[in-house]
Here is the input.
Amino acid sequence: QVQLVESGGGSVQAGGSLRLSCAASGYTSGSYCMGWFRQGPGKEREGVAALHTGGGRIYYADSVKGRFTISLDNAKNTLYLQMNSLKLEDTAMYYCAAEICPGRTAEDMGLLPPGVDDPHVYDYWGQGTQVTVSL
Here is the structure.
């Protein structure tokens, strides 16, 4: 059973930065898609950034492109989300998620894994960490 534990959330002023971490455990052999999702007050959960553990093209929501960076440290089994130039609208509960994904071929690397931005296809979720951006 995959377990995901997020940390790093908090309160920050607009324009500031935060780095979220997601410590993963319980993985079996194989490849995974891992991503960050967020859910603001009264909003649906949305994909923020996601990647395949086998590498290749990374997904970013248009609203965070150029400001957020997702990365994976395989040695530490930890997924990160570096968030810079934070805006008020980034305020949300941020969740780390993972799903078993097919392995990637060389031809796949330029493509996004199917459904990588869809929270409904992810099997494993962390408990969430709150990010609050204020003026």
About this structure: The two ends are 40 Å apart (CA to CA). The chain has no helices and eleven strands. The mean pLDDT is 94. The longest strand covers residues 92-101.
